[in-house]
Structure formats: C-alpha cells, structure tokens
Amino acid sequence: MRKYRFIYIFLVLFFALSSCAPAPPTLLPIETVFAATHSAIMTRTAKAKPPETATPLTRNTLAPTLTPFPSATTVLLNIVATSTPTVEPSVTPTNITSGSGTVLYACELVSISPKKGYVAKPNEKIKWIWHVRNIGTQKWYPKTMVAKYRSGEPFYVQKEYPMQKITHVGDVAVFDIRAQAPNEPGSYRMTFSLKKGIHYFCYYTLKIIVKK
Fold it and tell me: Which residue, of 22, 102, 126, 168, is most buried by count of CB atoms within 10 Å of its CB?
C-alpha cells in the first residue's frame, strides 16, 4: 500500500512541476531567419554609405574648328624704269671757310675749253683747260692745290692734275687736264673739282659726244 502511495505522490509532483515550467520556444523556419538577417545587414550597409551625389550629365563638346591659314597671294609689280636726270655741279664760285666763317679758299671760273657737248672721234686725246681765278684769302700752291676726278665716266688719263705755278689772291691759275675719248660712240661725261687737303670746291663737268 505504501508503495503505491509513493508512486502516486511522485506523479502528482511531476505534473505539478511540468505545468510551472515555461513553454519551449517555437523554432522559426530557416527562410525567415535568413531574410531577417539579410535585411538587417542591408540596413546597416545603407547607413554606412556616404550620400550619393548626383553626377551631372556630360554635354557633347564640339571639336575645335581649324582656322585655315590665309592663302598666298601673288602680287605682280609693274615697275617702269624712268630716267633720272643727272644733276650737274654748279659752276658758280664755291669756297672753303674757316671755323669763324672767314673765306679761305674760293674760285671763279674765267674760261674752260672745250665746253660741254664737244664732239670727239673714238680714242681722241683731249686737252681740257681751266682758267680759274683765286678769289679767296689764301695763296694757292702747286703741291697742295690740284684738280681731281670726282665722278662720271673715267675717260681721264690720270686722276689728279696740279696747277702750274703759285697763284696769289686775285690771280688766275691754269689747270691742264688730259682725257681720251672712249672707243665706243655715245655720250660721256665726267666731273673734276679743285682739292685743297680734304676739302673739295669748284666742280666742273666735261661732256663729250663720240662719233665715228
């Protein structure tokens, strides 16, 4: 009897304790757990990302247009040769002055032969004679006062010719210049002048016409 009583008490206690214990947790399906985990991860990732900046649309840029170089322009120049008249030195008296303005050397043409326009034969020898008056304030000396070639066709015999003697103020000096006509027919001219040191004055021109 005691034996059954003990078993009865044990069963009562067992059921009493079982009713007090919490119900066992209900297990969720694996798909639900995975979905919840993935959603949580995506939410954290989205919060950690920096805010996205809108990227402006790129406009199509036109390629630069090449600027053509100007084409070469041919310019034709119509050059007409014109004859420039030769200015002949004046036969009016010229002079050399000192620093104070005093006239030192000056001349005046008395006569000259032959004159301009002399007609000569080819290779003809010519004597070109000057008679020149000293109208300055200084004497003329043969070694320092000469007639010298300056310009034009050089049909002279030599470039420089001294006067024949000392010429005082007011006197006339003679210069004997020798020339030779060119061989070819045509018009020729050359100019001589008096020379004192580095100074030139009194320019005269001989013009000849060579004819066969």
Answer: 126
Q: Using an 8 Å Cβ cutoff, are 194 and 200 in contact? A: yes
Render pLDDT for 6-38 as a digit per residue (tens, 0 to 9).
Answer: 676 767 666 666 665 555 555 555 554 445 555
- For the chain, helix (H) and strand (E) counts, in that order, are 2, 9
Question: For 123, what's the count of Cα atoms within 13 Å in the CB-facing half-sphere?
Answer: 1
Which residue is listed with tokens 């390629």?
A: 63
Residues 6+ apart with CB under 8 A from 211: 119, 120, 121, 185
CA dihedral 43, 47, 51, 55 (to 10 degrees): -30
Tell me the pLDDT tens digit for each residue of 147-180: 999 999 999 999 999 988 999 999 999 999 999 9
| Cα 113 to chain centroid, rounded | 53
One-letter amino acid at 140 equals W
The CATH class of the 95-210 domain is mainly beta
